[in-house]
Amino acid sequence: MANEDYVLDGLAIIFFAGWLFLWFLHLLAIFYGKWRLHRRAPPMVAENGVPGVSILKPLVGVDSNLFSNLETFFNMNYSKYELLFCIHEESDPSLMLVKSLMQKYPHIEAQYFIGGKQVGVNPKVNNMMPAYQAAKYELIMVSDSGLRMKEDTLTDMVNTMTENVGLVHQMPFTCDRKTFPSTLEKVYFGTAFARIYLVSDLLRINCTTGMSFISRKHVIEEAGGMQEFGEYLSEDFFMAKAVIDRGWRVKISSEPAWQNSGVCSIASFQNRVLRWAKLRIAMHPLIIFFEPMSESVVMGVAASLAIMRLFGWSFLVCYLVHMLNWFLLDYILLKIVQNGPLPFGKFDYIIAWLMRELSVIPIFTQALLDPTIKWRTGAELRLRWGGKAVEAQTKK
């Protein structure tokens, strides 16, 4: 019996310490977010002019916001960049929009590439290869189709690319929209996602997403070129890893990546979260234990049991206080990331926050049971440990 008590006390101390550590991460994200985000980019001053940037825009299909999203890239306050549109196939309807914008803004250097080049199983890398090979500037930017660009964001990202920095990425967030699914997205990206993203950047942990980033082309070439990452679905993470392995820093810019996809539903949002969970599990198997324990619902149960064991306090009271404080700190962080009034009320926040927190474990469990990912192009890929992928139908 005494041995059992020692084991239970030991577990209680471990979970209690882990719980305190998570509160420390909450506060760290809040203070770092307040210091790092939304700093207006000063005008660039360079002896030989501003560095040129080649912007790769992979496109598959269209949605109601694609034209306006793409148009923001033609109106950036930056004097030296080229737009390289990567069209999946000749019949893709996005080609018509690209041609229309190129005619509307003939003074902006832009061209399109159709069909891609097969270098691996990653459809996005395949789609970008011709544009990557044709890029004429040292700085290469990859930017997803669903993003809007503020006029000074490119300047901010290039300013962040200091002498010791090899890759600059943006923390994903969302534009203001009026539907509940968009509220759910904003709450997720401004709370749980922002917390781990900001803390990871502060502690120099690789957390890069391929939604929007700039890298030095010569560093990517030293790693084998973009084609070297065609065997991974999380090519963004492994590109950043290659940059870090060669002694360069990886940093976030002060301006978030403003997602503005025309397709916004609860199902599409949960599918994205599910896909990212599958990628994280494949790359870092230890996440199978640590990620659920970092969530409010699971850690709340573990910490409340630990506190009840160590101090004799009420489980229910501890759990309710835990959830309330988590809820409030998430709201503070969301306001910091938003940098302005939220487009929804507190009741909508409560519902979206609860829905996100309660859906974590079911989504994570589904990710564990099915490592298959279906791409927008129709390709079905199966993840292997370490992050590599193979076509699902080739598995025997």
Q: How would you summarize this macromolecular structure in one to three sentences?
A:
The chain has 14 helices and 13 strands.
Sequence-ordered SSE layout with sheet pairings:
Elements: H1 2-36, E1 53-59, H2 66-72, E2 81-87, H3 94-104, E3 110-114, H4 123-134, E4 139-143, E5 147-148, H5 153-160, E6 165-169, E7 172-174, H6 180-190, H7 192-202, E8 212-216, H8 217-222, H9 235-245, E9 249-252, E10 257-259, H10 266-283, H11 287-293, H12 296-311, H13 315-338, H14 346-369, E11 372-374, E12 380-383, E13 389-391
Parallel strand pairs: 1-2, 1-4, 2-3, 6-9, 7-10
Antiparallel strand pairs: 4-8, 5-10, 6-8, 11-12, 12-13
Largest sheet: 7 strands, mixed
Provide a count of the helices: 14
Question: Which residues form runs of ≥5 with pLDDT under 50?
Answer: none
Structural class: alpha/beta
- The average pLDDT value, as a whole number, equals 92
Rg (CA only) = 22 Å
Number of strands: 13
